[in-house]
Amino acid sequence: MTLPIGAIGDALPGIAAMPAMPGMRATDAVRGTEGASGEGFAAALGRAVDGTQALQAESKTFAIKAVTGELTDIHAATIASSRAQVTLELVAAIRNKGVDAFNEIMRMQA
User: Does residue 81 contact residue 99 with C-beta atoms inside 8 Å?
Assistant: First the structure.
């Protein structure tokens, strides 16, 4: 799975470009750094998971409409299903990279 960099914000609404805050450099806004506490990353990850759940709920709604015969636009259902699938794969990849990074840090010697 490969996404262009600009499409990541579309795929994950919670990871869209963060607005710059007063006193923050533009590079800090892109990285989402809000100090050493990691609250910016946690908030962005939380929004990404919430966005994934919303896309999955939308896909499920279209699937229910398809089963009951109420679906009028098959294209919207297909797009919603694909977006939910790609977003879930992206969130899982980010999670896996985070776990790998944590494990690598734990293997380091002091």
Answer: no
For residue 22, the tally of other CB atoms under 10 A from its CB is: 4
Question: pLDDT by residue (tens digit) across 67-100?
Answer: 999 999 999 999 999 999 999 999 999 989 999 9
Report how far apart, in Å, the C-alpha atoms of 79 and of each of 25, 53, 95 are.
36, 16, 24
Q: What is the pLDDT of residue 110?
A: 67
Q: DSSP letter string over 31-58?
A: HT--STT-HHHHHHHHHHHHHHHHHHHH
Side-chain half-sphere exposure of 77, counting CA atoms within 13 A: 14
